[in-house]
Design goal:
This protein is an alpha/beta fold and 410 residues long. Helices cover 32% and strands 18% of the residues. Helix 10 runs parallel beside helix 13. It folds into three domains: 141 residues, 2-Layer Sandwich (Aconitase, domain 3); 91 residues, 3-Layer(aba) Sandwich (Aconitase, Domain 2); 152 residues, Aconitase, domain 3 (2-Layer Sandwich). It contains 14 helices and 18 strands. The relative contact order is 0.13. The chain is globular.
């Protein structure tokens, strides 16, 4: 079986699961953030459900409207807190703990082989640790919390076979952006992206989480790195692709769709007003280190705003201890608390009409970060840092080459 078939069979009490059939499974974990927690729990209260099936498997994280930018947002969060207490949800994380998906990994609320659902589309992130995970709606979550079960259509799987190693200027972000061009969303739609092959062992956990996080942008139901490199015998895949990691170069997703991807060298010179480094996609310590490696001792270009949001409090503290935040602030960055930040257009860095932002987040849809007349580009933290320094989209390889010539470790 494919990894999706294997996990869904196991969680449904079946010996085998076949793509296309429907199963009723028992997820190992459930997560809600501050946007939907009050709605889901309020729905349960409205229909008279007084107890959750298993509150120990439920996690609530405040990460989107943090800190609340309006009275309405503050009231919504207060309702969520009250309902979380009423339903005995002990795994509750207040604002400042971090972005929900990073918190779930750090708190080990998701593990290899788990089946996890959450009220957020980027729940596919957990495939980076070998879990099968996906986003669901509020009504589905209410049902799942009350019964402990949820139905799934077993998806077909698309095999992505990786070989080689990433070049110094590339990362998991460049891999998933390259796959947007190679595979697109038509092939991956409602399927499970399964990453295997000898190249997987060279990817860091941060790279894997980034790749799986953006798997949903390709339309996939799941995105996962199963344990081991070998292919399961006899598993049937709807499509198969091979990618040599060493052949990848820095990539940029251009407005207004994530599939509109080009090599960064084709976009060099495009003026940028704001650079954003953070989100559940690229706010990890490795990402901040990459950015600081280029920004150390330099200044961001005049007229450019650089907004940084570490993905968790632990990452924030470690970045302080390593001097990363000092380097970013000295370069001119605004470092916000651990949250989703401006990624989803709630606050902390909205765009005015006509402005352009290059960010390390996951979506560049029109109007995503403020004005529908603004433009959003997506790239890696290295490309983001190089762009902040230049004031226009820049190829990080030129700066890395300069550092190497100066004998500065990157």
């Amino acid at each position: 079986m494919t990894w999706a078939e294997e996990i869904l069979a196991k969680k449904s009490g079946l010996e085998k699961a076949v793509a296309g059939e429907y199963v009723v499974a028992r997820p190992d974990g459930f997560m809600m953030h501050d946007i939907f927690a009050a709605d889901v729990l309020g729905l349960l209260a409205e229909v008279g459900i007084r107890e959750l099936h298993d509150p120990s498997r439920v996690t609530v994280v405040f990460d989107h409207m943090v800190p609340p930018p309006s009275v309405a947002a503050a009231a919504h969060q207060r309702t969520a807190r009250e309902l979380a207490r009423r339903y005995g949800i002990a795994n509750f994380h207040e604002m400042g703990r971090g972005v929900s998906h990073q918190v779930m990994v750090e708190e080990k609320r998701v593990r290899e082989g788990d089946l996890v659902v959450a009220t957020d589309s980027h729940t596919t992130t957990y495939g980076g640790v070998g879990a099968l995970s996906t986003g669901i709606g509020s009504t589905e979550m209410a049902y799942a919390l009350a019964t402990g079960t949820l139905w799934f259509k077993v998806p077909e799987s698309v095999l992505i076979r990786l070989s080689g190693r990433l070049a110094p200027a590339t990362s998991g972000k460049d891999l998933i952006l390259a796959l947007m061009r190679i595979v697109g969303s038509d092939i991956a739609q409602a399927r499970s992206l399964e990453f295997r092959g000898p190249g997987t062992s060279s990817l860091t956990l941060a790279d894997r989480l980034t790749v799986c996080n953006m798997g949903v942008e390709m339309g996939s139901k799941f995105a996962v790195f199963p344990p081991g490199e070998d292919l399961p015998q006899g598993a049937a895949y709807a499509a198969s692709y091979s990618v040599d990691l060493s052949s990848l170069q820095p990539m940029v997703a251009c407005p207004h769709h994530v599939e509109n991807v080009r090599p960064v060298q084709e976009m060099v010179g495009t003026r940028i007003d704001q650079v954003f480094i953070g989100s559940c996609t690229n706010g990890r310590l490795q990402d901040l280190r990459d950015a600081a490696s280029l920004l150390q001792g330099r200044q961001i270009a005049p007229g450019v705003r650089l907004v940084v949001t570490p993905a968790s409090r632990e990452i924030y503290r470690q970045a302080m201890q390593e001097g990363i935040l000092d380097a970013l602030v000295a370069a001119g960055a605004i470092v916000e608390g651990a949250s989703c930040g401006p990624c989803f257009g709630g606050h902390l860095g909205l765009l005015a009409p006509g402005e352009r932002c290059l960010g390390t987040h996951n979506r560049n849809f029109q109007g995503r970060m403020g004005s529908p007349d603004a433009e959003i580009y997506l790239a890696s933290p290295l490309t983001a840092a190089a762009t902040a320094i230049a004031g226009e989209i820049a190829d990080p390889r030129s700066l890395l080459a300069g550092l190497a010539a100066e004998g500065v470790p990157s």
